[in-house]
Every structure is written in C-alpha cells, then in structure tokens.
Amino acid sequence: MTIARPHRGYHGPRGSQRFFEGWYYRVSLPEASFATIYSIEDPHGGPLSQGAVQVLTATEVAVECFPQVKNFWADPDALAFGQVQAATPRVGLQLSAPFWDQLQTGYQATASLNQGRVRTDRGEFSWDYRITPILGWGRDEATMGLLSYLPVYEVGWQVCMAHGWATGHFTTPSQQHNFTHAPAYIEKNWSLGFPKIWFWLQANDFTVVQGLPDPNLTVTSGGGARRTLGWEDEAALVGLHYQGRFFNFRPETGSVQWQVQTDTQQGHWQIWAGADGYEIELIAGVPRTKLQALLGPSPTRTLHPISLHSLAGQLTLKLYRGRGAQRVLILEAESQTTAVEVGGERWAGTWAGRC
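-> structure tokens emitted (355 positions)
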C-alpha cells in the first residue's frame, strides 16, 4: 500500500541557488535500531555539489559521499529517489535483483522500499527492507501547515510517514539483523540551509503504562529558529497519533514550551504543549556518550558536523484531557528507542523557549 502524502515529491533544484534536500528513514529494533539519512546538495552543480548517505547505528555513523550529482534521481510527484557511485548514470527505480547485482555503493528508496549499501574501512553496511505505511501526519496534512506550500519557511519539513511496519534486514560489518513488523518512520526536509538552532524527537515503539493499548501510537516533536519571509522566530510543535485520533499541538492552535540540555552527562529533552482542551508532556533523556555527531550543510559549507543525534533515548509521554488543575491523565507511555536530536551553529548546550 502506497499512501500519497503532502510534499512527497522532490522540491529541487532552485535554479543556481544553494539548495539541499534530505530524507530520514528509521527502523526501531531492540538494541539494534538504525537510520539512513540521504541528502543532495546543489544538484545544479557547483563547488559544494554532492550527494551523500549517512548510516546511523547505536554506536557509529558511516558516511558515503557521491560527488557525481548526475547519478542522483528523484520523482517530483512521489516519494522515490536514489543515487549510486558509478561512472555511468543510472536513473530511476530498479528491480531488486539488477539493483544489487550492479551496485557497488548507493541506494534507492520509496514510500514502501529502502535499499542500499556503503563500504567503509571497517567493512560493509547494507540494508534492504519493505515498508507498509500506516500513518502520515494527521489526515495527510502538511506538517508545517498551508504556508509550507509557498517559499515562506526555511527550512521546509514534512513527516512523510509517522508510523509504518518494516520487514527485511540490516547488515553491519559484524552482524546481520533480520526483522519482521518493526516500527518504521520517514521524514524529509528541504531548504537553503538548516535552522540556526533546533531540537527534535520521535518515537513509535511504546509500552503503555496507563491508558488504552495502541500498536500505532506515535509522536513527533520539533522546534527551531525558523526564517519566515526574511525574519526569524522560534517555533515548535508536537504531533501525536493515538487511538485513531491526531492531536496537533502547535502555536496556531495553542502553546508549546521546551527546555533542552546536552551540556551535562545526561542529555535532556522536556516539551510541554496544550491545545484544544488537551495537554501533553514529553520527557526524554539519553547519556551524553550516546549522542553522535551527524553531518549537515550550511549556506557556505557542504556537509560538516552540525547536530547530535541518538537512537537510544528514553521517553515518558503523558497525555491529559483538560487543562491545569482539572486535567485528567488519559495516557502514559514509555519508549526505550526514541530518536532525539539537537543541532545548529547557535547550539550552546541549553535552550529553553516557548511559542
């Protein structure tokens, strides 16, 4: 089943302007979660032009860059893209057998497929899994609202799949992990550069402590200093799918507060939001030693360390009906495989805000 989503197609390039587009695919596994992060910079060419894939595990990040951007392809109308390290360009989705037979390094990904291979000094990383999409963002809404269809926000952000099920395998130089019906997640962003500062977390693998069980329970939260029509403001949101309902906490409908800290031995994410007669609290933590540097571009530089990320965050989620002293707890859930991130060139270890 392939579900159409807002912003599912490729946005670039924008003439000769500095531009990147990136995609994030994650599978949650006990002790072996992994993510693949794809990017294309300046697909029109230039000194900073390249493609890349970053493979993130619980203990390391493997990076492969593709200087030949002519080997990158993407569908402008669907979630489908890929790139290979080859002298002769190969454009478009390939059947699995020819793809693997001809591939040295590279990848191809869609809403229902993620395949690739990179080679490092330590050995080979490869992945091959099928995806059953379950939930997008709300009822297939744009994550950043209707204005995201206009060149208003920098950076653009879209949750392509808040929750789905993945079946396949992931191989590291030391071990192969086979999985069936594992929680999966997909998002993307596009822009002239990342925000000056941001935080993010996502989880869709929960144990419900109080409330009704829901195998499709999923939450995503992010905030940053975004550029909007030439001026900058701080904004954040929380999106929760629970029991067939989408709870959308954002400044346009309520309020969001956050405090994020990574300058101690324990990274800490605390987000509170209220809207439409509900409140949500997210408290996540991860040892500082489990945060790994990820690469991203800026307006004047190609990929360089720009964020800290972990797949091993421990999250407690609480959802209340009502506000303030009259609120009633209707859901408490915990996740040991939460993805957490902070980033930006303005990041200084602690950031608190509200909108």
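The longest helix spans residues 96-102.
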